[in-house]
Design goal:
With 109 residues, the protein is mainly beta. The strands form 2 sheets. It has a 6-stranded mixed beta sheet with strand order 2-10-9-4-5-6, with no helix packed on it. A 4-stranded antiparallel beta sheet has the order 1-3-8-7, with no helix packed on it. A hairpin with a 5-residue loop joins strand 5 and strand 6. It is globular and about 40 Å long.
Length: 109
Amino acid sequence: VQLQASGGGLVQAGGSLTLSCTASGSVFSIFTVAWYRQAPRKQRELVAAITRAGTSTYADSVKGRFTISRDNAKNTTYLQMNSLEPEDTAVYYCYIGTWGQGTQVTVSS
């Protein structure tokens, strides 16, 4: 499985971004998919995950602001990020049985 993530960038506080991650191959639908992030000098942390049945979980720090979704037909997961805060600045990684390359999200104050 190879993963291609996109959608990162620079945004002002309060703004929004949508990350997407597309998996090659036909195994996407059997996996729980997840987004992690790693800020400078911090450990990688789970941001959100969604099971193949569509049950989602979120880190407390992003509840109410981020929404994870998946489109099994497109082998793609999305992370809609609203009301972004400078503390959300990190490299974001998708995980679908393997790690994708990260995409940088920078939130300016």
